[in-house]
Each structure stands twice: as C-alpha cells, then as structure tokens.
Amino acid sequence: MNYYIFQGQKILVKTGSHILPSAAVWKACADSGLLVRSFNERAYSYSAASFPAETTVPLPDSYEYIPLRQFFAESNDDEGALAARAAGLLNWRTVNTFCTACGAALEDDDRLTARNCPNCGKQYFPRIEPCIIVLITRGDELLLARHRMRNQDMYTCIAGFIEIGESAEQAVVREVREEVGIEIQKLRYVGSQGWPFPDQLMLAYRAEYKSGEVRVQESELYEAKWFTRDALPSHPKAGSMGWRLITGIYD
User: Fold this and answer.
1) Each residue of 210-246: b (16+ CB within 10 Å) or e?
2) Distance of alpha carbon 109 from alpha carbon 119, whole angstroms
3) CATH tag, 129-246
4) 8 and 198 in contact (C-beta within 8 Å)?
5) 49 to each of 66, 78, 94, 137, 193, how far by Cα in Å?
C-alpha cells in the first residue's frame, strides 16, 4: 500500500529521498484532525490525504515536504502517474462537494471513480482538461516562449487548451498561430502526461517551422525567441513534458 500525503502542491517523503510515508506516519497524520480530505482506492493499492496549504503541520521525524513536480522528476513513470492520480482525485473531491443540480452533498460511488447525488441521482466523474504542448524547431533552433501566466522567469514550449470541436492537431496549429504568429509543418505526436495542476492531460507534439515572423500575443506571452540546445535559457525542470521536449528525449 502506498500512502500519499499532500500539502498544497507538495508531497510528504522521507528526507532526502522520494520514499513515501509509512503506515504509522499515515495514521499519525490522520489522527491529527487537520486533514481536509482523504480517500483510498483499493484497486490501485493506495491511500491519499491532504492538508490545507496554509496550515502549519508538525512534520514526522525524518520526513519533509517536496514539490510534487520534484517527485515526478525523481520517480519512474508508474510512480509518477499514481501520484498524479492521487493528487488529481483529491483536487477533484475538494471542489466537487455539492450537486450543481439540487445542492445536496455528494457521496463517493462504491464502484466507479465518481460522486453521486443521493437526492436527485446526478452522477459526477472527474474532469480532465486536455491540453497540447508543442516544441517548434527551425534547423538546430528551438522556439521557446516566456508565458505571462507563469510565476517563474523561464522559457518553455507553446501550450494551450483544446477547444470544443477541434482535434488535438488543430489545437496545436491554432495555438501556435495565435501566440507567435507563425505557420508550422510536419506535426507529429510524441507522448502524453497526466498533470494534476490541477487536472490536465498534456498531449505533446513536435513541429517544424514553415513560414512567418514571430509576433507574440501580448496577452499570453512576454516574448518568444529561437534558441539552440547548447545555449538554453532557464526552462522547465525534469519531470515535466516541457523538459522532455526541450532536452530532446523525443527527438
């Protein structure tokens, strides 16, 4: 059994490692009375719980909180995916507490990954937001952008949400055209990643520059520039899809 204990966007691990808490630590946290939500999925052999981000929680001996992104970087794909599932379902349960049709308190379904309204019978499933992320190349150069929505001074790939009625490939072409004003070619899908910040599924692509001059959409980007891999600016850390694309894992 794995035990996932979150506080905000951090996860509790053994100090200096990515080893998860023991059953005894889980019980101590559960007995603290400070948890805002907890649940378990027997089919996946794990339990998950969360503390409010602003709460001061006494740390068990030899344990520390690390950023969930760091945990992804230090874990294999299966471990990272299960942590993403645990965090994502906690987020979903936290914000989906009442029925939007009648206002009654929701209850977890006994069989499905769903919540049910005991009053009107409406059923709710976790919401997943599909997104695209694309690395655009021009010869040996990579087009990277500094986004206004990020709170870090870093450059990364063009990305955005898929809109109703369009395919993932159409979303790539649209986002690139909107955000940097260029046309692309030789678009190809390379991989995907669950990203629980709070509920994205990242669909990753590579594409080649075709035509046009870079003109940034100022409401979305500060700037966008061409870089070579031997002179990269500050960019996403290991564990993210942006890092995988920029560092060449999908070449």
Assistant:
1) eeeebebeeebbeebeebeeeeeeebbeebbbbbbbb
2) 14
3) 3.90.79.10
4) no
5) 15, 20, 11, 42, 22
Concatenated DSSP letters of 159-226: EEEPPTT--HHHHHHHHHHHHH--EEEEEEEEEEEEETTTTEEEEEEEEEEEE------TTTEEEEEE
| Number of Cβ within a 10 Å radius of residue 186 | 10
Percentage of the chain beyond pLDDT 90 is 69
pLDDT value for 251: 64
Tell me the β-bridge partners of 66.
11
* 46-51 sheet: strands from edge to edge: 37-41, 46-51, 2-7, 10-14, 63-67
Confirm if 215 and 169 have CB atoms less than 8 A apart.
no
Q: What tokens appear for 248 in the block?
A: 């060449």
Average pLDDT, the chain: 92
Contact 190, 204 (CB under 8 A): yes
pLDDT tens by residue, 27-84: 888 888 778 788 889 889 999 999 888 777 778 889 999 998 889 888 888 888 899 9
Q: How far is CA 245 from the centre of its chain?
A: 16
Any idea where the domains of the chain sit in the sequence? 2-95, 129-246
- Bridge partners (DSSP) of residue 105 are 98
Q: Fill in the amino acid letter for 82.
A: L
> Does the global pTM surpass 0.90?
no
